[in-house]
Amino acid sequence: MVAAPLPRTRHRRAFDILFRLGTYVALLLVIGPAAWILIGVVARAVPHWQWKVLTTPTHGTSGGLENAIIGTLVLMAGVFIIAGTIGVFAGIHLAELARPRRNGKESGGLLRTASDVLSGFPSIVLGYVGYVALVVGLHWGFSLLPALIILSIMVIPYIAKSTESALRQVPTGYREGAEALGMSTGYSLRKVVLKSALPGIVTGLLLALAIACGETAPLIYTAGWTDAVPNLQLTGSHGFAYLTYPIFTFYNQPGQQAHDLAYDAALILVVIVLILLVTSRIIVARTQRHADR
Amino acid sequence: MTPEEQPIKPSPPVEIASGPPSRALDPVLAALDPDRARPAHVMESKALKLSFGAKTILDDIEMRFTRGTITALIGPTGSGKSTFLRTLNRMNDKVVGFSHQGDVTLDNQSIWEPNQDLLTLRRRVGMLFQRPNPFPMSIGDNVVAGVKAHRIAKGKQLDVVAERRLREVGLWDAVKDRLGDSPFRLSGGQQQLLCLARALAVGPEVLLLDEPTSALDPISTEMVEGLVRELTPALTIIIVTHNLGQARRVSDGTMFFYDGKLIEHGTTSQMFDDPRCEQTQNYVTGRMG
User: Fold this and answer.
1) Cβ burial, residue A25 (10 Å; 0-12/13-18/19+)
2) Is B288 on the interface with A (CB under 8 A)?
3) Which residue, of A168, A195, A264, B168, has the fewest CB within 10 Å?
């Protein structure tokens, strides 16, 4: 005999279906725009794609993008080194070293507040601060160093926060086990804890780099623009090229060549971000062979 | 005369069965014993009172652990036995609000003495946890993780250490062909044995076991219990367990905790067959959980 359905069973079933539908709609709303943008960029850039774009510097609003590509790569490397180091160390401090106070309150208050305030600044404000203080104030001119400093300041809070939360998710068992074996805090951090937190930290770094290479506002104020292929001169170089500038500026210029270059730059940025993604996946997969997941 | 036959007419505090019998009885063996100059009680707790903030967790714990014996800590949940165990290698020090009075000594030296190196203390007093907690590295690296940290061995020696310790815990044949694999593919029991091998690898004198078999199946439990027995008298073992049968099977002495106090302690047979306190009686007979 089949048991009679309980009252409200229908309601629950309907709710269940609605809930599932909701998640599918959200999924579509996320995938849709991403695919649209991707397809849009590829469809507009590929038909007129010429490989010499990669090897020719910009000339006015024509030529290629060699200067901008090298500039963006240099900026990313610099941000990776400066912001990566500072951000990861700040995150380690927040998660591991700042001990909870006696009254049970959260620790590392000053660093946390500073980090939160920084991440709340609009990037254009940071850019303008960089312009006033570094480009003009210190007579550095539009160049690599002020751009690096401002970009780093912008992404350090992201890196610190993602490092901290990755470290906090490391199972207590690892820490206790290391502690009980007589490993010092630093040793267990390096050999046991960081290893298990690595995916989170790498993801944070990747996000930061993606933000850094896609940022325009602070760079306009600190790096300026030049047709010249960048060298590693830190200050006083009268402009520094990067990929978002042609996207932002050339699109509003008359002429098919300028528009083409804008789309080429967008495509190259997308490819760079994809490479970042794939690299991080490979790093994570290689280091997590022995992970408990 | 073995310790079990000794007439026990207790007047507290009682001594737990004193070490390997041969040492106490045979003067020749006693003279050859490399440990003869060291105190017979490897660890002592002297009027230990422990609080987290305003809450007193342990009160007036007076206990001596004889070298080379197994002591079981029993008592209901929340009675403070695990806290006591974790105090012995100072795992509680960093808990918010931790404070203590009285003292715990290792070889007559306070574990909180300023010149007592915390890392060395934990090398000498090892610990095994309730849930197996292998590190996220290969099986082989897990065994020698502590050895590397303390720079006890290096290079090729590490492989020798790994093999010795894995053989010691009876895991070698099961893992010898996959030392580079993740430990998380092993069964729970095997993981716990791996953690035991890791703890043994740094050469501890005292091993603290915090309910080491409560997450394991019966066969693994039996293996761990057998190993624990084999590890004495080379090691002194202190084991927290909720399993009264286990306490009875493996231990020489038993301590009964209730509500942060050490109610009674004595030889295991006396504690189970002829307890002096009514609370102990109720607990070991299952009338109180």
Assistant:
1) exposed
2) no
3) A168
Say how far apart CA A233 and CA B57 lie, in whole Å: 64
Domain around B86 = 39-111+118-284
SS3 B60: strand
A8 at interface of B, judged by CB pairs closer than 8 A: no
Cβ of residue B223 closer than 8 Å to a chain A Cβ:
no
Q: What's the pLDDT tens digit per position in A44-56?
A: 988 888 888 888 8
Residue type, A106: E
Distance CA A126, CA A130 (A): 6
Distance between CA atoms of residues A27 and B266, nearest Å: 65
Tokens of A231: 């060298």
Residue with tokens 């199946």: B217
Mean pLDDT, chain A, integer: 86
Phi/psi at B64 (5° precision): -125, 130
Taking the alpha carbons of A180, A182, A186, A187 in that order, is the dihedral positive or negative? Answer: negative
Decide: residue B104, CB within 10 A, 0-12 exposed, 13-18 middle, 19+ buried. Answer: buried
| Strand partners for B46 | B103
Identify whether A157 is preceded by a cis peptide bond (ω within 30 of 0). no
Q: For chain B, say whether A176 makes contact (Cβ under 8 Å).
A: yes
Using CA atoms, how far residue B152 sits from A25, A56, A112, in Å, is: 59, 59, 40
Determine the pLDDT at residue A291. 65
For residue A77, the number of C-alpha atoms closer than 13 Å in the C-beta half-sphere is: 8
Mutation target for B interface from A284, A290, A292, A293: give the one with most B CBs within 10 A: A290
| Cβ contact B136–A187 (<8 Å) | no
Answer yes or no: is B258 within a domain.
Answer: yes
Alpha-helical regions (H) of chain A:
9-45, 66-92, 109-120, 123-130, 144-168, 172-180, 185-188, 194-214, 217-222, 244-250, 256-287
Least confident of A11-15, A37-41, B252-256: A11-15
Helix H or strand E segment including B248: helix B244-250
- Domains, chain A, in order of start with CATH, read 70-243 (1.10.3720.10)
CA quadruple B250, B253, B258, B262: dihedral positive or negative?
negative
Paired sense of beta strands B253-258 and B70-74, if any: parallel
